[in-house]
Amino acid sequence: MSDQQIVLASRPNGMPDANTFQFEPLTLSELKDGDVAVRGTYFSVDPYMRGRMNDTKSYVPPFAVGQPISGGAIAEVTDSKADGFAPGDVVIGTLPWATRSVVPGKGLKKVDTTLAPASYYLGILGMPGLTAYFGLLDIGQPKAGETVVVSGAAGAVGLIVGQIAKLSGCRVVGIAGSDEKVAQLTKEFGYDAVVNYKTAPDLSKAIAEACPNGVDVYFDNVGGAVSDAVIKHINFHARIPLCGQISLYNTTDVPMGPRIQPMLLTRSVLMKGFIVSNYQDRFAEGTHQLAAWVNEGKLHYTETTLKGFDKLPDAMLGLFSGQNTGKMIVEV
Amino acid sequence: MSDQQIVLASRPNGMPDANTFQFEPLTLSELKDGDVAVRGTYFSVDPYMRGRMNDTKSYVPPFAVGQPISGGAIAEVTDSKADGFAPGDVVIGTLPWATRSVVPGKGLKKVDTTLAPASYYLGILGMPGLTAYFGLLDIGQPKAGETVVVSGAAGAVGLIVGQIAKLSGCRVVGIAGSDEKVAQLTKEFGYDAVVNYKTAPDLSKAIAEACPNGVDVYFDNVGGAVSDAVIKHINFHARIPLCGQISLYNTTDVPMGPRIQPMLLTRSVLMKGFIVSNYQDRFAEGTHQLAAWVNEGKLHYTETTLKGFDKLPDAMLGLFSGQNTGKMIVEV
């Protein structure tokens, strides 16, 4: 297959589709001093990338129309004019969606594939792992005996949040979108109870039954109606880390819902939005602890892998229909 | 006028009205050991009392139908079988809406009227002052140079919040409901700008103009559409102390509005509900600092006083139509 790249053909109005992504033949720029030539091996698709397809102010600038989409990726160095990189090195960085790239070496980091499979650095030892770690422990502050509810429980972040909450001595209740995920989360990932939000006849009642002592921490990955149902059962002095709102990312109108402030007010609840880069100063601590838990067998991990560069658009869309359990990865 | 009390005749559905309050002749219970007989002199009406008229779980139990409404009040001791209280003492406590009461002495505290007028202990040196102090400083954490927006800026709490924010070196922008309040807040209470939410043709635009650097702290007393307009201009890492939601207290349906979580998420905003009793351990600190600022002339104070026990229902309703500037008090 010849080398190619995927550009943002047009900004999606609602759910991205065939008009959003354009495959193009690739012309590589020349290798200058400080540059590294790489071949992409694992590409990460993440919900936040949907936000970059819009032309709105957020914590990362929007993708440019006609330019390659970019995201977290693992690559193999094929040529280098940058100190510290040599052909054969495995590196991680933000890379264009292209089979090959020439990028400045200073944006790349070498990863040690003797410690963990390369793709783990896009997941449990990377951005999703750190997001789970800091969001739950720093904002959620779970205490032993409390009840922690995680929406998007089978997602890249949710899968890790639930396990860290369990390590903190909490009752852990997940919300997920298929019976397969429900079974896997309870059997393999230690969740005490999991509610299938797509089939529960009365979601609020199902959450109440799964949380007989109410909800002390709600780690929110999805927003929308699922969150409305959880917040009804929120306890006094509860904490709500806002990590994602994936149910709303493809809405075209301003999403409306029941106002939550009266509940947060009367129950003295804390809600805090965050992005993982808020914790940049503490990444070493987080990565060290996550790696230790993985090595001790205390954190289990799984990922959903699609094979082939041409699967990147499908993988991205799959996030919104819940195709993945754990991190969604495209292996080239 | 003979002695009387005001009972909750029926739970209001929406705005309280003539059917909510019932005046009754008063029969005093006998003075037992530990009791104090008092004559009410100043009664406080506060927005949170509306919540107690509903039969819903909150941080204070609901009023009982057929029983007297109760709230913060200043009273004069007329007789005492409790240690530490003697006729003529001026006391503060939660008292029934009754011209005279017999209550346990342990629920009362003497106030020193040589330091400040008695009614101040229901306002700037009492619950509203402490609410402003802890909500702004502990949750809002204003830093010099930041912009602080206060809704319900002319209310009992808002009036104090704005001045403490000013003492913290912030640009202070109020939102209030009449041109008289706008003028008074800017001329007498140091607000840098005040928006009249009832007359601004485009509230969001008016807030943007008053906050050229965005909003770093939003002290929310009112909720609803006013808050929607403010949150549009919230800055990264902003803090939103949720103190009141008075615009919603008389709604009969679940109030709907634009979902705020996407904004809180993408801008890493903290929102936290609170009630003043969360800070009970620090009341001495708060009262001491507020009294010092009042004595140093750094905090100005005003109240709206209605005269006559029979004005209590009108005073309560007046809160919802914005009749008051500063604390609303009924003087008997």
Written overview of the protein:
Two copies of one chain form a homodimer. Chain A is of the alpha/beta class and 332 residues long. The first copy, chain A, has two domains: 4-123 and 301-331, Alpha-Beta Complex (Quinone Oxidoreductase, Chain A, domain 1), CATH 3.90.180; 127-277, 3-Layer(aba) Sandwich (Rossmann fold), CATH 3.40.50. Chain A has helices at residues 48-52, 127-140, 158-167, 179-188, 203-210, 224-231, 261-266, 283-295, 312-320; strands spanning 4-8, 21-25, 35-44, 70-80, 90-96, 100-104, 109-110, 147-151, 171-176, 193-196, 215-219, 234-242, 256-258, 270-273, 303-307, 327-331. Chain A is globular, with a radius of gyration of 20 Å. The model of chain A has no long low-confidence stretch (mean pLDDT 95). The A-B interface holds A 51, 58-59, 220, 223-224, 227, 236, 242-245, 248, 254-275, 278 and B 51, 58-59, 220, 223-224, 227, 236, 242-245, 248, 254-275, 278. Strand 13 of chain A pairs antiparallel with strand 13 of chain B, so a sheet runs across the interface.
Described by its quaternary structure, the protein is homodimer
**Mean pLDDT across every amino acid position of chain A:** 95
- Within CATH, the superfamily of the largest domain in chain A carries the name Medium-chain alcohol dehydrogenases, catalytic domain
Gyration radius of chain A (Cα, Å) is 20 Å
The low-pLDDT segments of chain A are none
Brief summary of the model shown:
With 332 residues, chain A is of the alpha/beta class.
List the helices and strands and how they pair.
Two copies of one chain form a homodimer.
Chain A: E1 4-8, E2 21-25, E3 35-44, H1 48-52, E4 70-80, E5 90-96, E6 100-104, E7 109-110, H2 127-140, E8 147-151, H3 158-167, E9 171-176, H4 179-188, E10 193-196, H5 203-210, E11 215-219, H6 224-231, E12 234-242, E13 256-258, H7 261-266, E14 270-273, H8 283-295, E15 303-307, H9 312-320, E16 327-331
Parallel strand pairs in A: 8-9, 8-11, 9-10, 11-12, 12-14, 15-16
Antiparallel strand pairs in A: 1-2, 3-4, 3-6, 3-16, 4-5, 5-7
Helix pairs in contact in A: 2-3, 2-8, 5-6
